[in-house]
Design a protein that fits this description.
The protein is mostly beta strands. Helices cover 0% and strands 44% of the residues. The protein has a three-stranded antiparallel β-sheet, with no helix packed on it. A two-stranded antiparallel sheet has the order 2-3.
Length: 71
């Protein structure tokens, strides 16, 4: 399964699924709709991929977003 945490910078789709041994799947990470309300600054979310069967291959990736102040 995949999920994001920390500041809501990213959304993940699909958020869960099943794969057979050796299979792969595409996961789409998008800027979260709530990101438009963030103040200027740097934000990040941790996206975790978890093997719910035996935890082999669990991994995380960081999604980063920099919000600039309006000119």
């Amino acid at each position: 399964s995949a999920s994001s945490s920390n500041t809501t910078v990213a959304t993940v789709s699909p958020t869960s699924g099943s794969l057979g041994a050796g299979a792969s799947a595409s996961v789409t990470v998008s800027i979260a709709s709530g990101a438009t309300a963030l103040a200027a600054g740097s934000y990040s979310s941790t996206i975790s991929f978890t093997n719910n069967t035996n935890s082999v291959g669990n991994t995380s990736r960081t999604a980063s977003l920099t919000v600039n102040s309006a000119a």
